[in-house]
Amino acid sequence: MAGGMSFTFLHAADIHLDSPLVGLSGEVAAQFRGATRRALAALVDLAIERGVAFVIIAGDLFDGDWKDYATGLFFAREAGRLHRAGIPLCLLYGNHDAESVIRRRLQLRDGVHAFSARKAETIELPEWGVALHGRSFAHRDTTENLAASYPSPVAGRLNIGVLHTALDGREGHAPYAPCTLEQLVRHGYDYWALGHVHRHEVLHEHPHVVFPGNLQGRHVRETGPKGACLVTVTDGSIGQVEHIPLDAARWAVAAVDAAGARRPDDLAARARAVLAPLVGEAEGRPLAVRLVLTGAAALPPALSGDPDYLAAELQAEAAALGEAVWIESLRLETGPPAARQTGSRPDALGRFADILDSLPDDPAFRARIQAEIAALHGRGGVGPALEAGAAAPGLQPDETDEAIRAARVLLLGALAGEPDREPDAAP
Ligand SMILES: [Mn+2]
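YS: structure for the whole thing
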């Protein structure tokens, strides 16, 4: 290898092109629509600007079978831009775009190398001294240890393994192409360009084992900056791995301490303090925030008993911070029992609160709530499923408790809903 030679490459994964972003409606949905396309275009822009040697997409470029050819044509346009800039694209298919999943297809044009699903395959880029090894998914449910079939490293090359895997299990991700970190570290490659897990993670250095995370968050459980890894190679060894945000719209979950807030402007000020830094980090991107009001049991009934008003006040506060800032949803959390609103009240409301407090422990009641939520899921009415490919869309583990908590706050707020007599409650 030439002394002092340095170059960069881009490692991306889980682009889920044209994935419907879940949990939004109306104006927000319009702002978020097309975000996966804009993120892919941003990846290509970055590759060209930085003059990278090559680009890797480690699976789930597509979200599933195309609705029509527009998805494939958009990809063809972006791949063409890379090719005309002289940048090869190495593409691996994962569970979402396995051979058996995508029925419509377009031929790949020059400059795009797709890894075979039959067996592990090596792509050599001699001008960079690089050998890339990879194997695509033939089927969605690939439970074989694919990494075990990857070839030994090529002597005298920088060896990169491209693999779509959940390793030995990652929360919220289907356990496809299982393998262990130790197995990858021992294989003899310099860099493992992984995909499938949507959160960016550097699991090991020298050799590097890296998930770039997805390129664009698709729902409120995929929060914060999303993008790709720009990797610097100097004299045939891996140097810096820099995660660069390329998302075109962003999600966040933020807690606002509502305890002791007596008036709308007080609560709005607390929300502003939490939202402002998120708006700053989003750098002008559309931003959808789930707000969790902790200590909501202590809110005066004028606020907790009128969820539409509460949500509108907080949305108005968000709008004051940026024109593309939305409250995705508002969750009311009552906090631990000791902090609860009615405490030792001996009256009917206090006894009703005690009954409500016992419900989370009642298996029959839990089962009914779960059935209701499952029915809503079935109609597509409630939040996102797990990273698709997992079990059928179903309950999130925390959803039942969350629903019971929220119902408690709403019920008690509404029942106690006489005008707020707190001395500091201004008109
Ligand atoms: Mn995947």
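YS: worth flagging: The pocket of manganese (II) ion is lined by residues 59-60, 94-96, 164, 196 (CB under 6 Å).
IM: good catch. Also The CA atoms of residues 142 and 418 lie 59 Å apart.
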